[in-house]
Amino acid sequence: MDRVGNRYAIVVAVSKRARQLKEGAKPFVEVGSSNPTTIALHEIAAGYVQILDAAPEEEPEPEEPEVVEVTGDAERLSAVIQSLEEESQEEEAASEEAEEAEAEEAESEKQEKTEADE
Predict the structure, then answer these.
(1) What is the spatial distance between Cα 73 and Cα 61, in angstroms, rounded to a whole number?
(2) To bridge 42 with a disulfide, which of 52, 70, 88, 106 should be the other Cys (CB 3.0-4.6 Å)?
(3) How many angstroms separate the CA atoms of 105 and 107, rounded?
(4) pTM
(5) Is 86 exposed, middle or buried (0-12, 13-18, 19+ CB in 10 A)?
(6) Among residues 85, 83, 10, 9, which one has the least CA distance to residue 45?
(7) What is the pLDDT along the chain (118 residues), one digit of tens a residue?
């Protein structure tokens, strides 16, 4: 967060870098996970991936850095991302529950009207 100051920019950057890793890009850091999202978080925390305000038309290939083991900041960053994902999932679940409740209420009203008409 100190590097960027905006958690949403971090999420976007992690997503883009994880996609690159998934498509075959070589990781800049060596971590104990093969998950592209985790690797991208470690790379951002280590400063190998920069988050820019405006993306250039063509991103230059970064220089090949020395592979390093990263701890501390990356774990905190990973925890923040995970909590954001959990919040998003909870909001989705609550929204789905509300939609289901509305549908059930509409169905109940429809049945009551049908019964009253009979």
Answers:
(1) 25
(2) 70
(3) 5
(4) 0.43
(5) exposed
(6) 10
(7) 666 667 788 888 888 989 999 999 898 888 888 899 999 888 888 888 777 654 555 666 666 665 555 556 667 777 778 888 888 888 888 888 888 888 888 888 888 888 777 6
26, 27, 33 from 54: Cα distances, Å:
24, 23, 30
Q: How many structural domains compose the chain? A: 1
Domain that holds residue 54: 7-117
CA–CA distance, 103 with 84 (Å, rounded to integer)? 29
2 falls within a domain: no
Q: Is residue 35 part of a domain?
A: yes
Of 95, 90, 74, 91, give the one whose Cα is nearest residue 1: 74
- The residue to which tokens 């905006």 are assigned: 6
Q: Is residue 17 part of a domain?
A: yes
Domain membership of residue 53 (yes or no) is: yes
Distance, CA of 83 to CA of 91 (rounded, Å): 12
